[in-house]
Structures are given as C-alpha cells and as structure tokens.
Amino acid sequence: MAVQDLYMGLGALAYAVAKADGQLHSAESRAIRELLEAEPFGDVARCAFTLKEFHNDSPEEAYQFALRYFEANKRFLDRQRKFHFLRIAHTIADSHNDISDCERALLDRLKADLETL
Per the database record, which ranges form the Co-chaperone DjlA N-terminal domain (predicted)? Predict the structure, then answer.
C-alpha cells in the first residue's frame, strides 16, 4: 500500500460526510471539488468520491471504506494528516447551512476513530 491509498479513503470520507444528512448539496459538491483539488493526491480522492456517488453508497458504507483504507495505510497517517483530514471533513459539513446532527455525529465518530489509529 502507498500514501495515495489514504486519499482513496479521503474521497470516500468526503462522500460520507456530504451524504450524512441524506443528500449531496451543491455547496458541498463545490467545497469537495475545491478541497480535493488542493490535495497532493486529490485526483485519487476525487475518483473515490465519484465511485461512491455513482454506486449511491450509504454514508455508512463510504465511512467504513474510508476507515479500512486509513487502517491499511496508517503508517502514512501521522498526527498532522489526521488533523488535516478531520478539518477537511468539518469544512465539507459546514459548507451547506449549519452542521446537521447526523454530520456532527459522523465528525465526532471520525475524531474518535482517527485517535485510535
């Protein structure tokens, strides 16, 4: 496995956060596109996001996919990258109105899960 595999997880995570409240909003789509374009392997993350969207995965399926990729590549998932990925997830959740209860629960869960990796 390689560091770019973390970004497969990031793309799936972006999808999970955006769909946590039930639908992908255009503001979230724009935020995701901008955020992922700024990443070193943003094209990989964007592909993962697009695949999750194409298959209409549930937020839980996408979240579990992300965690599997994070776990498998945790040697590349240092403290700084964990914080960065969490910040990206927060930015996506906050891009459309306020953070919903579903999004907040997912973000809290992500923070706890990242701490255990």
Answer: 10-111
